[in-house]
Here is the input.
Amino acid sequence: MDVKGLKEYLAWLYYQYLLVTCSYVLEPWEQSIFNTLLFTMVTMVVYTAYVFIPIHTRLALEFFSGLFGGQHESTVAFMS
Amino acid sequence: MATSTADKVSNGNIHRHNQNINTFKSDAYVRSGFSNHCNKHNGKANGGLDKRPFKESFDQAPLYVAVLTYVGFGVVTLFGYFRDFLRACGLEKCHLAQEREEQKDFVPLYQDFENFYTRNLYMRVRDNWNRPICSLPGPQFDLVERVSDDYNWTFRNTGKTIKNVINMGSYNYLGFAENNANFLTTVADTTRQYGVGVCSTRQEMGNLDIHNELEDLVAKFLGVEDSMTFGMGFATNSMNIPALVGKGCLILSDELNHTSLVLGARLSGSTIRVFKHNNIQSLEKLLRDAVVHGQPRTHRPWKKILILVEGIYSMEGSVVRLPEIVALKKKYKAYLYLDEAHSIGAVGQTGRGVTEYFGLDPSDIDVMMGTFTKSFGAAGGYIAGKKELVDFLRTHSHSSVYATSMSPPVTKQILRVLKCIMGQDGTTMGIQRVRQLAENIRYFRQRLQEMGFIIYGNEDSPVVPLLLYMPGKVGAFAREMLKKNIGVVVVGFPATPITESRARFCLSAAHTRGMLDKVLSTLDDLGDYLSLKYSRHSKSTQDRTLRRNSVVNH
Here is the structure.
């Protein structure tokens, strides 16, 4: 288990993130603010996805299957 | 082919004029390129006018790079607004110039983008510029070590110097920035004889005999009738263009011309029109419009049309398309002003600039201008051409009337370097340096392309811009290179387009193969560490000539 190699790789990935988002030039407290904000936004996006995407896909599938196969199952479609 | 050029070269004098032997028949690429420009090829496209293949490349980076660059700038801009807000509130001390309380109701002075950019981005990475140097700027130099305690607002010297940093930023193309006492004996003697200051202008008491000697030698070097030298390269452009053109004349200037050319053009009072960088179609369209429509309201013909171009553009590393421009100027009866600041001494078989590189006759170019700062290790500039032109400038140029003439040690240094390059001092050192530079250029560019970096510019240009794109990487690159004892110049927004920041390498004949290898291996490692290898061409299977023969104008 190459823990040291993995740690170095993660450090390198963090360095790339700093370079790409130009946080490399910011002072440490600005970097903390930026990381916090970004982390919060990503967490909110992930949470929203987790809560809403299954329900929305299920509803969308039912809507479209209701449209195409509607002649036979029009009564069943409204009962979900 | 190789032996004939070698014979001609060892003489130090190239006879370019009476070679009608192989001009009309040989359509194929002639490597030596010393034959006369022939009029039969006017109807052909690009390939016919150039005597050698013209390889320039300006690769585009993948799209994600551009997107991420904008993201980086966006983040820094947001934090810039945040910090400005803190400064305005008084929560943070402001280190920069501010308006006084009484002026708060007036038009704001420090709110434009340039000031914003300077305060909030440039200051954060400022330690990579203006580094004090404490030795000769040769192939290796010493830097003063300095640190900043408050994020680059103030610096203090630690007292140590960083020794033997490899110099990849100085314009020392032929390596004549040297302090070897043996080579500088004539310069020392001249200083003892004439002193250092001239204390007068050319037209009053500042015309020394060594100035006349220098001008004759420069004219002989370039193959023209006469030349005139000035004390400052920037002033050569900005003070002489107003003497040559004025109201009622038209200046067609390249997009990426140097500030001295732009300033000279604006000072002259002529109409200025800009054509796209190195783009012949754009220039031809402008010329046609100028000849057909004349001056804006009266439609009278223009008194003079002057095309301003440079030999090598120092930010891009591109070489001007001289044969096509000369053909255009002959067709439309315009004048050509060629600024060879970076190309004199650095390109061409014997270092005589882009005219020799393309195999053209120097009398085709109306005004040849150059500087002695880059390849000659001195200071000053020259303008060369026909005798009538130079005689006119001797009386009408602002520089000759008001500016102090060139200092004697500097004049003697240029004389010694010119004699060295022409072979008149009895050694072949000059021509060896020119060849060493060409070899260094070829090697360096080829290795960088193989590694997968995006390099701009012509294959034969000693200026190598390596694209970095993202603003975070600009600061990181310069700092990491300094840690490895290599000094580079990185360039960002005001001098380049905002998304195309780059590191600019200037090669020198004084760089040994060992130094170049050290730089290249460091670049290889750093390219992987900072992920700078954006080139989409695969390294092993590329056919370089095929890909680079097509020139992309951006």
Summary: The first strand of chain B starts at residue 56 and ends at 57. The interface with chain A takes residues 68, 71-73, 75-76, 79, 82, 121, 124-125, 151, 470-473, 475-476, 529-531 of chain B (CB under 8 Å). Confidence is low (pLDDT under 50) at residues 1-48, 540-554 of chain B. Residues 5 and 32 of chain B are 7 Å apart (CA to CA).
